Structure prediction request, 395 residues.
Amino acid sequence: MDTIWKDDYISIPDFNFDTTTSGIKLNIEDTARHSPIEIFNQIWTKEIIDIIVKSTNAYGLNQKNKSRPHGKYSRKSKFTETNPEEIKKFPGMCMLMGSLKFPSLRDIFSNNPLYYHPIIKYTMSGRRFEQLLSYFSVEYLGLSTDTGPMSKLNPLFKILIANFQKAFYPGEDLSLDESLLLHRGRLSFRQYIKGKKAKYGIKFFELCDPNGYVLNIEVYKGKNNYLLPSTNSKTDSLVLRLMDPYLCKGHSLFMDNYYNSTTLSELLLKKKTHTTGTLRSNRKGNPEEVTKKKLKKGDHVWRRKNEIYISKWKDKRDVTIITTKYHPQIVTSTNKYGQQKLKPIEIVNYNEKMSGVDRCDQMVSYYSSPRKTCKWYKKVILHLLDIAVWNTYYI
Prediction:
């Protein structure tokens, strides 16, 4: 296999990305007339609110009319239907509570001066908030054809992702990475990721622009065999699904070693998309002349197969990189402290463009809406609300 790997350069394909397509696509030309809530309403639309209202009412009435007996003062026996105005207030309260610290949910509705917040009780009673939180859902309308976990999130999920993509078109560079929503309850597809702050929770695969605007999301739903016809790898299929709206348009995608491989780079090159990112040294098809080469600190070695370059550079440890966007070479890089250092150009650009998902996670973490006691799908819906708020702020 190593005979096909060469040590010379060929020209990098130019896919002529159209920069005129990038930017905000919402109608916000007159900034004096458009407040943040008006921009948010074009992402978290009336259609989404109507779905939540109808599904919450259907769920509440379903629980109310169950044949099993209710206690004399049971809230389930006295469910009052909600409406769009109240459902707008409910997530607003969730977002406000995300920035407040209190021992239990009912404390914020009390008159205790340590936790009292005037707008909370003015907006809604504690009992009503708890009742809405209990019945808050989007699945009781029969609109979802998915029989798996996503049946509890569709169709809100698909509508919201479509709205993210309609509101903003990214520049040439995109980044793809995982995000983790904290959840320690029982769940068949709960994940453990050592490097994340939450460590345990629900995993999202997110496609972002380098500054953190979220363009596409896929929820990890457990092991499955869903493969696209053009691939034999679940990871390759995942990347192609997330990138589907942006293929054949000249984008450059940055990913970490979980996704990257020579086969994926070949697939994306055929779809006019460049790739750059770290690479696992034991991936099938890697050149042994690079992966098994012993390097001293600062050494850099690379090989080329057609238009794919694989390189290895040693700093504190070996770093293997795959790229179709850059000719591997050492350049001078300046860090945030103004210090200059020699690094490969593919690593410099990877470090610069790969932080989109981390940036989104950072911004969302400051005012996180999901309640600790929520069921997993309610946490996901409130997490999507946080992302919608962040995307609104970005715009």
About this structure: The chain is about 30% helix and 15% strand.
